[in-house]
Structure formats: C-alpha cells, structure tokens
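2024-03-11 09:14:02 DEBUG pipeline.ingest accepted 1 chain
2024-03-11 09:14:02 DEBUG pipeline.ingest length=580
2024-03-11 09:14:03 DEBUG pipeline.predict start
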Amino acid sequence: MRLNFLFVLAIALLAASCGGPEKEEVAAPAVRPADLVLRGGVVASVDPTIGLAEAVAIRGHAIVAIGADADIDRYVGPETRLVDLQGRFAMPGFIEGHGHFLPYGRAQQILDLTTAKNWDEIVALVAGAADKAKAGEWVVGRGWHQDKWDSLPADAVDGVPRNDTLNRVAPDNPVFLGHASGHAAFANERALLAGGIDDDTDDPAGGTIVRTQTGKATGLLRETAQKLTESALQQYEDAFPPERREQLERERVYLAGEAALANGITSFHDAGANFETIDFLRLLEREGALPIRLYVMVRNESNERMDELLPHYKMLAEENDFLTVRSIKRQVDGALGTHGAWLLEPYIDLPESSGLVLEPLLDVTRTAEIAVKHGFQVNTHAIGDRANREVLDLYEAVWQAASVDGNDLRWRIEHAQHVDPLDVPRFSELGVIASIQGVHCTSDGPWIPSRLGDARAEATSYLWRDLIDSGAIVTNGTDVPVEAINPIASFYASVTRMTGNGKAFIPEQVMSREEALRSYTLNNAIAAFEEDAKGSLEPGKLADIVVLSQNLLDVPDDQILDTVVELTVVGGKIVYERKE
C-alpha cells in the first residue's frame, strides 16, 4: 500500500517537473475600441520608460495605449480607422518653440524676398508690384538678407544699398521691406516721409537711421528706427474697412496654420501678441477655428496695462486646449546681422558700436516684478553676449528680491545665440531655459566671424553642447518667418551644424539625435508648463503626432533633409495627409 502511494507520488512530482498538461492561454481583457490606430512603424515615444514602440491607439483626443503591434491590435474595432505606417517613423508632433504666428501668415500675403540673390532682384520684385498698385498704395515685403547676396551695389553704406533705385521704380508708392531677422527694414523716400523721417531726424533710442557720410538717410532703418515708418504703414492699414481687416487677419491664421500642419507642427509658441490680438485668438478658439495649439506670449503692452489686465488674460492649459497665455515677451537687444546684438566688445566690422539696447533694463525689471506678482513666465530676447549676461543678472536679482525659486518659474532667454563661457553654467544654476533655434546657427554661421572675428565666434556662438552638458534645458524652433518653418531643417542644423557652404560651424557643439528630438518636443512642452499633456507619446496625453518618411534617429546625416511629413494628427484627428 505504501509502495503504491510512493509510486503515485513520484509520478505526480515528475509530471509537475515537466510542466504538466498545457493550460489554455488567458485572453487579454476586452477593451473599448480606439478611434484611430497607427501601427506597423517605428514610434518614438520620447519617454525613457517606453522608448521605441510599433503602434499607438487613440480614443477621442488622447492616447490610450502605445506598444507593440500585437498589443495594440486589440484596440482595433469595426469603426476604428487603421493607418498602416509601413515602417515609417512616428513621433510627438513638433512644437515650434519660438515663432511669430500672425506675422508668418502676413509674410505669405506680401512680397517674399527670402530667395533674392542680390539687390537687383529685389528692385525688380518691387517694380512689378508697383506697376500693379495704385498711386499711394504701399508695397510691402520681407525676407532680404544682405549677407546672403552674391553681390552689393558699389555705393552701399554699412553693407546695405541706398534707396535711390527704389525711388525710381516706385515713385508714387511707399515701399517698406523688412529684413529677414525682423530687426531692420528698408524704405524708399515716400515711406520715409510717411514716417516723418528726413535727413535731420534724430535717431530714436535703440535704433539707427543709417546715413551717408554727407548725412543723407539711405533708407535703412535699424532696430527701433523702423517703427517710425511701421506706424505710418499701420495707419494706412487701419483705414481699411473693418470687414477687410478681419478677412486679412483670418487669412493669416489660416495660412500660418496650414503651413505649420504641413510641416508636422502641432503646437506653436507665439513670441508676442498684444491684448487685442489675444482677444481675436480667443474668438477663433471659441469658434473652433484655431488650426494648431498656441502658447502666446504677451507683447507690446505697457507695464501699467499688464499689471492691471494680466489676471484677466491668464489662460492655463485645459483638456484639448488650443490657446494658453501665461508668459510675457520682452526684448533687450537686436540681431547680430543688423549690428543690433548687444556685445561685451565692439563689432569687428563696426568698431564704433557694441550693439543696441532696445528696451531699457529698468523697464524689463519692472515687467519681471509684475510677472512674479501675477504668476507669469518671462521670456526675454537676448542675442549678444552682453545681453545674455544682463538678462541672467536681471532675473537673478528679481528672484532674490522676491524670495522665489527660479527653477519653479521656468523663465526663458529667447535665442541665447552668443553667450560668454562664464555665463553658460548660470542657465542651469538659475533654472533659466535656453530657447534656441537650431537653423539660425547654420544660416548665420558663414558670416558670424565677419561680425565677431574667428576667436570670439568660436568661444561664444551657439553653445548648445556646453549648455546641455551643464544641465540646462534647451528648446528648439525656427523663429519663423525669420527662417523657414521647416523643423526638419532645424533638426538637421542641430545635429550637424552644417552650413550652406558645406562646412560645419563649430561642430563640437552639436546635439545628439535624441537631444535634438527632445528639444523639439518634450523640452518645448516643459518650457510651456505642458509636459503633462504633450511632448511625448504616453497614455493619457494628447494625441498630437507626426508621421515622417524617415527615422530621424538613424537616417544618415546627408539624408535628413530628404525627410518629408506624411501625416499630422492633432487631438486625435488627422489634419494633414501628404498627397502622392
């Protein structure tokens, strides 16, 4: 009896050691089907705990799951729209970290001067527009850059032509042509007179009316000087019937939004709008007419008005929100290309100048105090090394006086293009975000040494590697319409620093692929206090996704610029699809 028992026990133990009889697999619990599923690709979540995936499921405006195809297939129901990625690359939608939304739309309504190779081509464009215009109508354009031309007229002043030729081709029309940087403009005689400018007009604070050696105004208006003629242009446009003005504004939103979506941009940090413009954007949001998500910085309002009205304009991100307002934009200096960047030492090619201070530091300090009071972020334009140092000092002093922690406030320096090496670690130490634009580096690289000299250019220019290694948060964008809105070009610049002349500009400062991807997604979300809702692909976050033709993480450097946007998803809806 005992032997039989032991025999049976041995058989049972042997069966257990061999795994026993096969058990039926337990089926995964049923889930509610998704509205949209993207599968069969390489999905970069930009979340270190998730890493790369193959598929993502979306219900409503949010992501419900991300993972392997087999895991996501259970979210496919009879009504689910299924998109086969066919190996393509999906990632969080690009977030434009610094651009000018309505000005970009406006740039598409006026003369495009970005591709002009010389002054003669610009004059020809103006002549064509003047021929079609009535007497007194303004001819407006934007995008010229003298350092990118193949030649200059012999009588150029400060490296820029005189307006004599514009006077001849458009004698009856005011002509106003904005520099690519937005930090200078060129005007013919009719436009100068409309702005009250003649040979005896004094330079305004923070600006220069460029003149010949005999004192004649050439037409070049540097920094704040262009506002004299801009105000006359604004008065001209304000005289349009209200219906026409609104039509133009709505068209600008449509044009800017359409281009952004076609470039895979799902959110846009708009670097400056006054309260009136914000009211207009509020109206469009209520109508459901904003094509992409906007993070708007308050601009061109007095400290007094901001102190009074900021509480009424503060708009924090809510579920599936398309308009948030919680920051203020200020500007300390101008651009390097127009000799407006504020430098610690004089320009090599303009030794009588170290740049321009566009907005008084005391006024910016008061703005910073108001921002602390009302819980607003401050984002200050600073390009030159002196400007960056002054802004860091200003932020630190205001925080100390108010006994607040700058890390919690996430204040930013917009551009941070030229930084003294001594100031690099201060970004991380203070908690200041460096809001850079990768494509500026490769666009400007060939001529930067002509302004700074080789040694200063290498020591201070676009120090991304040093900033990242020091622990600073670095974000990315294009500053559109200063540069083209294409984030692929800015990504390429960030990881190669390759300029148009085939040479890399200070290549030691490149970002890695992962760093560049994060700078255009999650870091921009952090810079807007929105990392809980966007910037990475995770369950519960907004379904803002872009599908690209190539994998940005491993495509060879020389093929990055061949990458095209295949699909753009905003809030779970496919809003752009490339046509073959």
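2024-03-11 09:14:41 DEBUG pipeline.report The longest strand covers residues 265-273.
2024-03-11 09:14:41 DEBUG pipeline.predict end
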